[in-house]
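Hi all, long-time lurker, first post. I run a small reading group and we've been trying to get comfortable going from sequence to structure in the token notation. Rather than ask abstract questions, I figured I'd post a concrete chain and ask someone more experienced to write out its structure so we can walk through it together at our next meeting. Sequence below, copied exactly:
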Amino acid sequence: MSNSFKGDFLGFTFNNIHSSELGIVRVNTGNRGHLDLSPQFKDNTIEVPGSDGIYYLTTQYQQKQFQVSFAFDNVSEANIKTMRTLFSAKEVCTLIFDEEPYRSYDVKVSAPVKLSYICFDNADNTARVYKGEGDVTFTAFYPFAKAPYKTWTEYVETTEGGRHYDINGVCIEEWLDAANLKKNLTGYDEFVGTEALLYNPGDVASPMSFVFQVKESGYFQVKYTKSGDTKGIVIIDTSKLTNENYYRFNSKTRLLEGGAIVSNIFVPNGLIYNQAIIAGDFFSIEPAPSTVVQKLVRSSETICLISQIQYDYLYI
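-- Answer (accepted) --
Happy to help. Here is the structure in token form:
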């Protein structure tokens, strides 16, 4: 089976190894493909003694599973060895299906992989080759996919006839409307004066973080707005922090972390400064179409210097 078996509904990449490198290709076991439109639900309820029925509280998304069936007709001993190592990994790795390159899942192989095959010699009788099929089940314990890149131009490998193709030969225009990515993010995710434009084309609210350096003592406010409405706010008392030091507001961990900038990357030092947050709370960036204006608004340009605004594009 040649490495040309890539593209829509044919290939996938697991732990940075494409299925074509293994000599395998995805197949459907029936007449139709199957697509789960959401992860499993977990409904949180409470039973009240003496009352009929139960009370609904909230719903959580659970893990998401992918069962991939594949076939092969010319797999070598080296391919088998690579599959044995790859599909026996006990750690979480990335999984990307060719037809949706904007969706990267963190998954683990959740069951031993078994192959059904026949074995024969290759054309010149110098090595064994295998023909058959198999299945592999991946579990995404965090059920949302993350976009590997935030602009569609970063996916482009070639352009032909006005259409753009990625490294696996998939036409980007076929999935771009679903991903809703911009061509570039010039003017986004960085402050100009007291405001920074934001854009989240994903399906769910995304935790965000920003790094700041304290320049003066005082009260410092950062507000998140959507169409002019305040959606989140935090007020930080910088007198409880140290001038010239770096800190990170991290709504994923719900921590105000101390640290340093090393090679332009924030490196936490393990110290927590949540006591400096005197009002407000950690907030996430909500999904919205490109026509909706979302911003971070800071109260001062001098008390703190803000950089490295970060949040993922998350898809169900």
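A couple of things your group might point at:
The chain has two domains: 12-148, 185-315.
The longest helix spans residues 77-86.
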